[in-house]
Amino acid sequence: MTDLDSDSDLPERKRGSGARMVYDLLRDEIIDLKLAPGSPIDEVQLAERFKMSRTPIREALVRLAGEGLIETLPNRSTMVSNIDFLNLHTFFDALVLMYRVTTRLAAQYHRPEDLVVIRRFHEDYAAAVKAHDALAMIATNAAFHSAIAEAGRNPYFTSLFRRILDEGRRILRLYYRSYEEQFPQRFVEEHAELIAVIAARDVEGADRLARAHAEQIVRQIQTLFSRQERLDMAL
Amino acid sequence: MTDLDSDSDLPERKRGSGARMVYDLLRDEIIDLKLAPGSPIDEVQLAERFKMSRTPIREALVRLAGEGLIETLPNRSTMVSNIDFLNLHTFFDALVLMYRVTTRLAAQYHRPEDLVVIRRFHEDYAAAVKAHDALAMIATNAAFHSAIAEAGRNPYFTSLFRRILDEGRRILRLYYRSYEEQFPQRFVEEHAELIAVIAARDVEGADRLARAHAEQIVRQIQTLFSRQERLDMAL
DNA sequence: TGTCGATTTCTTGTCGACAAATAAAATACA
DNA sequence: TGTATTTTATTTGTCGACAAGAAATCGACA
């Protein structure tokens, strides 16, 4: 009752940082499904929670809406965006293509220091698999591929890819209980192979591997999804 | 001197429409280079011009910044984004790929009513060419390809593609005086061919044509660009 | 009891004002 | 005359308050 959901105790706040902070935090909570799709978002409530006025809150919400993470009904309410299960195939199309093109460009344009970063996230992911920490797998996998995209140095692609990876994290979280069993060591090995072809600047190989890897993930999600559907029908 | 740049006389304004209106108008002015890259953007000035408070102005600016059309230095100023000539190749890469994938998907997923819209923009473009109206060519060409992307029904791709088309419009405006000579009837014919393969649901043909079309445009821009460079060197 | 209309409530959209941060201008000093 | 420092000016970031719009509630009436 006292101080229940106050993200507490950051009374020190620099001038321009309010909106940024709210944006980052809300984004994380949405992607981690701490805020469920469809949850209402109340400006005054957030203002109280973060102990600031509605203005910087509003700015954060406008940015989140721009990225499609929340939806706002004019004059009425704003809520966390729902996941569009009916059009999942558009998500899959975009996912596969962006996996391919970012990996390809990474093979072409990466610099040595990029590999250091990529390898670090690779190790993080491997550690998460070893620890059977599904939630950490989701996060580090996204970070790994985001780093590869970064090495490709095409801001148009990286920005879209990030958005897709974010949405992918939301979808995977839905099933995270199920895929400790399914998210195998195999992905770790595939990541290692990806690093190898990138380092070798093998563009075609990068494309081929990235495609196979992406389609693997798509199948994984589809399996989880259809299993869930059968579960729903049983009710 | 009196009432020089007031976009005048819309005292009637509905409640939620302020930010939207400013956003649309600024976006147009940026894309049409009425606001040159690097131009400072002053919130109070805009507030006076549109006769509203800074709050809705600010919302519009936040959205524009989210799309990369303006850049804002914390606590200091905000200005129209510059065109990154040094990394034009990333723009070209994204342009070609998005031309291909959106046209491809249009061939796959379009519905009959989509073709009506596409053909209408095609005619608009043809009319602009006939009229030697370079500015109208730029706008209608973008609208044409945007409509094709819409028919592909993948919001991830359409949103990125729109952003790229907007940037392309800015770049083309720089040279619009030069390409009345160069923007030939040929593009009209290529557009007609694109419509044909889409209508025939010929996916591979759509890919091939879109690619050729896009690379044509890229070469066009590169020609204009290098010509301009030689001109600069002559100074 | 059910339906339609008025009223209340709740949330957002807009406003004007103030404070902080930074750049520009002015001043002091060598 | 040139440089360092203080002062001013300008622009943004934040705040609290108020009003409009839409849903929910309540009440009248059949």
UniProtKB/TrEMBL annotation, chains A, B:
One GO MF term attached to the UniProt entry: DNA binding
Keywords: DNA-binding, Transcription, Transcription regulation
Coiled coil residues, start to end: none
One Pfam family hit: GntR
Sequence ranges assigned to domain HTH gntR-type in this UniProt record: 16-83
Cross-referenced InterPro entries: GntR_C, TF_FadR/GntR_C, Tscrpt_reg_HTH_GntR, WH-like_DNA-bd_sf, WH_DNA-bd_sf
PANTHER family in UniProt: GNTR FAMILY REGULATORY PROTEIN, TRANSCRIPTIONAL REGULATOR, GNTR FAMILY
Protein name stated in the entry: GntR family transcriptional regulator
Lineage: Bacteria, Pseudomonadati, Pseudomonadota, Alphaproteobacteria, Hyphomicrobiales
